[in-house]
Write a structure and sequence with these properties.
The protein is built from 14 helices and ten strands. The protein has 370 residues and is an alpha/beta fold. It has one domain: TIM Barrel (Alpha-Beta Barrel). A four-stranded parallel beta sheet has the order 5-6-7-8. A three-stranded parallel beta sheet has the order 9-1-10. α2 crosses α10. The model has no long low-confidence stretch (mean pLDDT 96). Bound molecules: ligand V47. This is Aminodeoxyfutalosine synthase.
Length: 370
C-alpha cells in the first residue's frame, strides 16, 4: 500500500511492516512520539485489515464486580473501599444469583467477573461464585479474576498456584480478564500500587494460567504518570510472553480516569492519546490477534473511530460497569446490541457477534443477530 506520511520517520516502520520484520523498542518510541496520528493510524489499519478484513467484533456480556473492598488501595483506583468505609459492598452468593437471574432473558455469552481483594471472603466463596454462575448461565463463558486475584486466591486456598487454578477451573473458570498489570515498571509499581503484585509476579501468574490452558487478555493503563518508554517496554514484555505461551486473546488499552482517585490532579487522556494507544498496540503486538477499543473508557464515538486505527473489537454490551464510572467516565453504563451494531455499520465495518474465544455466534443471521 502506498502511504504518504507527514512524518517521514514512519517510512522505515512501514518498510519493516511490509517486509514482515518485527518492530523494536525504537520503532515503538517513534510511533508514540509521532504527531502524524493519521499516518500511524493508516499503518495500524493496514495491519488490522490484513488480519480481520472489514469484520468488527463485539460480545453480549454482563459484568459482575462482586466486592469493592480491597486491601491493595491502588492510587489510580476510585472503585476500592476499606471494609468499614462508606460505600463499601460485597455481594453474597444470593445477590449474585439475583443479578444473573435478572438478565436471564438476554442472550449473555460472557460473564466478566472481577473484584477487590476482600479479606473477609474465604476461598469457598470464589468457588461458589463460579459454580453459581455456571449453573445459572451454562451457555456463557466465565471470564473471571485477574492475575492479582489469582495470586491472592493461591494465598488463601491452602493450595499451590497450579492446584488453586485447577480448583477454579473445576468450578467453572474458563478465561481471565486482562487487568492488574497496569504499566509494568518498578517505578510505577512503587508509586501507584506498592501493595499489589509487581510485574514479574503478574507475568509469572499469567504464564501459569496460560500453561494451565486458560486463555486471557492483557491491558495497559495509560495516561497517568507513565513515560512513553514505559509504555513501549510494557508492550514488549507482553509480546515476549505471548511468544512463549500464545495464551493472550486480546489487548485492551485502558484510558486512565482521574476523578475520585489519588491522582485527580492529572487531566484525563485526549482523543489523540486514545487513538495512538490503539494504533501503537496494533503495530507493536504483532502476535496478538485482537485489539479492543474499550468504549466504556474512550467513549462510544471514539471507539467507533478506533476501528479504523487498528482495533477490531468494541468489547461488550456490559450494562453495569462500575470501575470506570466511579472514576468519572461519562460513557453510558451499557449499550444495546442495536446501538453496538449501528456504531460498527456506520463506521463501514461488518458487525460480528462473538463469544469470548472469538467464535462467531448467530452466524445464520446477517450481522450475527438473532
Ligand atoms: O486493572 C482501575 C483499570 C482495570 C481505573 O479482559 C482504571 O476483556 C481507568 O481490566 N481509570 C480493570 N482504568 C478493567 C479491565 C478490563 C476491562 C475490560 C475488558 C477486559 C478484558 C478487562 O481497570 C484495572 C485497572 O487497570 N482501572 N481504575 C481508572 N481510574
Amino acid at each position: 500500500m502506498n502511504i504518504s506520511f507527514i512524518d517521514k520517520s514512519l517510512n522505515s516502520i512501514k518498510d519493516k511492516i511490509d517486509r514482515g520484520v518485527r518492530l523494536d523498542f525504537e520503532d515503538g518510541m517513534n510511533l508514540y512520539k509521532s504527531h502524524d496520528l493519521i499516518g500511524v493510524g493508516r499503518l495500524a489499519h493496514s495491519v488490522r485489515q490484513k488480519l480481520h478484513g472489514n469484520t468488527a467484533y463485539y460480545v453480549y456480556n454482563q459484568h459482575i464486580n462482586y466486592t469493592n473492598v480491597c486491601i491493595n488501595r491502588c492510587r489510580f483506583c476510585a472503585f476500592a473501599r476499606d471494609k468499614e468505609e462508606n460505600g463499601s459492598y460485597t455481594y453474597s452468593i444470593e445477590d449474585i444469583k439475583e443479578r444473573l437471574k435478572s438478565r436471564i432473558n438476554e442472550p449473555v455469552r460472557e460473564l466478566h467477573i472481577v473484584g477487590g481483594l476482600n479479606p473477609s471472603l474465604p476461598f469457598e466463596y470464589y468457588l461458589d461464585l463460579l459454580k453459581t454462575a455456571r449453573e445459572i448461565r451454562p451457555g456463557a463463558c466465565i471470564k473471571a479474576f485477574t492475575a492479582v486475584e489469582i495470586d491472592y486466591l493461591a494465598q488463601i486456598s491452602g493450595l499451590n498456584l497450579e492446584q488453586t487454578i485447577e480448583e477454579l477451573k473445576k468450578a467453572g473458570l474458563a478465561m481471565n480478564p486482562g487487568g492488574g498489570a497496569e504499566v509494568m515498571s518498578d517505578r510505577i509499581w512503587q508509586e501507584l500500587f506498592p501493595r499489589k503484585i509487581n510485574s514479574s509476579r503478574w507475568l509469572e501468574i499469567v504464564e501459569t494460567l496460560h500453561r494451565a490452558g486458560l486463555k486471557g487478555n492483557a491491558t495497559m493503563l495509560y495516561g497517568h504518570i507513565e513515560t512513553i518508554e514505559e509504555r513501549v517496554s510494557h508492550l514488549i514484555k507482553l509480546r515476549e510472553l505471548q511468544d512463549k505461551t500464545g495464551g493472550f486473546s486480546a489487548f485492551i488499552p485502558l484510558a486512565f480516569h482521574p476523578q475520585n482517585t489519588k491522582l485527580s490532579h492529572i487531566p484525563g487522556t485526549t482523543g489523540f492519546d486514545d487513538l495512538k494507544a490503539v494504533a501503537a498496540a496494533r503495530l507493536m503486538l504483532d502476535n496478538f490477534d485482537h485489539i479492543k477499543a474499550y468504549w466504556v473508557m474512550i467513549g462510544e464515538k471514539l471507539a467507533q473511530i478506533a476501528l479504523s486505527f487498528g482495533a477490531d473489537d468494541l468489547d461488550g454490551t456490559i450494562v453495569e460497569e462500575k470501575i470506570t464510572h466511579m472514576a468519572g467516565a461519562t460513557s453510558p453504563k451499557g449499550l444495546t446490541r442495536d446501538h453496538m451494531e449501528h456504531l460498527i455499520i456506520s463506521a463501514g465495518f461488518i458487525p460480528v457477534e462473538r463469544d469470548s474465544f472469538y467464535n462467531h455466534v448467530n452466524t445464520d443471521k446477517p450481522g450475527g443477530r438473532p
